């Protein structure tokens, strides 16, 4: 069995997943990505988990793909192994995922943070796509997600120069939701997660899906998806509970049904 490079803790309805390859700044090798996708799918199926927080260490969320592993690969290895399948599994997780980033989020590390739905960053965190410096370019969504997050001009600059940006710049540019002192990153991400965990879980999952559709579909298709998801929620107990609680002037208690 491969070494555990992903650790999981439960905090009520929140699962905290920690990347754990500290000797290489959490470089993302295939074993780590498979473990991460396995754990995330388990959490996605578990009714006792409503939100996932993904974090790394103080020094690095993740410093990118494992360059030692990449250096030995040929083009067909990406197909035969297959290298990107676990990224696709993570993209399909339906519960909200919050990245809690301290230290470096570079290359595949930044791409992984961008696979998450929100990013809480420490004030000394650094984000970037430095692949250009090692003769390649982003391969796990960097050119697409970064461009959607911060726009073409800034994405060009970051990807073509490989320069890192601070958490503050990331927040100004729309990549990062919140910047907090480093020691509060995990706490802040967990508070945000606990807040979302109190909301009706089915509505949360459908809202996540609908927001992601805004990145992929035309406005007309996106509006149609949104309306169908909205109608569907009227078959849920949580819709009745939410509206009844409002009318009775009490706090709702959502069950995820
Ligand atoms: N891969 C493998 N090992 C790494 C990586 C990495 N990406 N990053 C750091 N390490 C290792 C170092 O080799 C070093 O090991 P050792 O102690 O055995 O020499 C250890 O981690 C500590 O690193 P440093 O001594 O370099 O620490 P510094 O504080 O001096 O520097 C940096 C930190 C700036 C983060 C530096 O380590 C660095 O530049 N790392 C590489 C960053 C990078 O280029 N990332 C992009 C990689 S390519 C990529 O992500 C492609 C994505 C597309 C596919 C995604 C699939 C997963």
TrEMBL record:
InterPro entries: ClpP/crotonase-like_dom_sf, Enoyl-CoA_hydra/iso, Enoyl-CoA_hydra_C. Keywords: Lyase. The keyword Methyltransferase does not apply. PANTHER family: ENOYL-COA HYDRATASE, MITOCHONDRIAL, ENOYL-COA HYDRATASE-RELATED. Belongs to the enoyl-CoA hydratase/isomerase family. This is Enoyl-CoA hydratase-related protein. It comes from Laceyella putida. The lineage of its organism: Bacteria, Bacillati, Bacillota, Bacilli, Bacillales.
């Amino acid at each position: 069995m491969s070494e555990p490079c992903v650790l999981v803790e439960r905090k009520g309805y929140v699962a905290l997943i920690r990347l754990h390859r500290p000797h290489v700044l959490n470089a993302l090798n295939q074993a780590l990505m498979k473990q991460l996708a396995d754990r995330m799918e388990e959490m996605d199926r578990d009714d006792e988990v409503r939100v996932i927080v993904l974090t790394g260490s103080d020094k690095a969320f993740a410093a990118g793909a494992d360059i030692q592993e990449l250096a030995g690969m040929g083009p067909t290895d990406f197909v035969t192994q297959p290298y990107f399948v676990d990224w696709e599994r993570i993209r399909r997780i339906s519960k909200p995922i919050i990245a809690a980033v301290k230290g470096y989020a570079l290359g595949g590390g930044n791409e992984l943070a961008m696979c998450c739905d929100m990013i809480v960053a420490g004030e000394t965190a650094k984000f970037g796509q430095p692949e250009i410096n090692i003769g390649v370019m982003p391969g796990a969504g960097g050119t697409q997600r970064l461009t959607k997050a911060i726009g073409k001009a800034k994405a060009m600059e970051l990807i073509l120069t490989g320069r890192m940006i601070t958490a503050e710049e990331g927040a100004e540019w729309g990549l990062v939701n919140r910047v907090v002192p480093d020691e509060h990153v995990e706490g802040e991400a967990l508070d945000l997660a606990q807040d979302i965990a109190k909301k009706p879980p089915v509505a949360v999952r459908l809202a996540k899906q609908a927001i992601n559709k805004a990145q992929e579909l035309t406005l007309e298709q996106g509006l149609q998806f949104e309306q169908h998801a909205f109608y569907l929620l009227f078959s849920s107990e949580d819709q009745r509970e939410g509206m009844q609680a409002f009318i009775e002037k009490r706090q709702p208690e959502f069950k995820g049904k």
